[in-house]
Specification:
The protein has helices at about 5-15, 25-45, 50-70, 80-95, 105-120, 125-135, 135-155, 155-160, 185-200. The radius of gyration is 17 Å and the shape is globular. It is mostly helical. The longest helix has 22 residues, at about 50-70. The termini are close together.
Length: about 210
Amino acid sequence: MKSESRGLVISLMVFFLWGTIITGPFRYFAYAFRDFFLWIFNHAGAPSIAISFLVPILMVASMLFLLVLGTKKYASYTAGICALLSLLYYLFHCVLQSSFDSVSFVVVIGLALALVFIIFRVDKGSLWLSDAYVFSLPVLLFFELVLAPFFGIFPHLQTAVSGLWTIPSDSLGFRFEDFLGLPALLWGFLLFAVLLIPVCFLAKGRKKG
């Protein structure tokens, strides 16, 4: 399968299963980038609206770097690196919350699976797993920038999908409300659409699998 087709399939799977335990490792991976950049700008005293632009841009820049790795000879190791980062951030989160939950098992399984793929040179498995981690970043941005303000307008729809999707109350998209007199949904959609262009471009030309 071509790399862009694989990325699309993986993105849709992660999107529709976003709130389930299955995608736990990928959610924590994506939130690791979001929360790290948020922490930097919050401590730097950056304006809230600036953070709404800068954090998504840096998240996509990080993803583009990972996609570039997917074109190199060590693409098979990307899954292991991503899985390790996901586990470390999950442990950090658990320490802050002073508790562990059922996701811990799946996060560990994600790392174990990545290591098995690397050790036994299951390249196709590594490529699919790494894409699940990498493409969780634009999936999270879609929730943050587009779905969050959308459900803010139609809260009854959010209630209908609450068992599958969870929209954080501090989503970046809410910060756009009334900026320059435009609704948050419009800002979020435009920013997401612009950031998606380089992602689609670099999703091509990587290893097939």
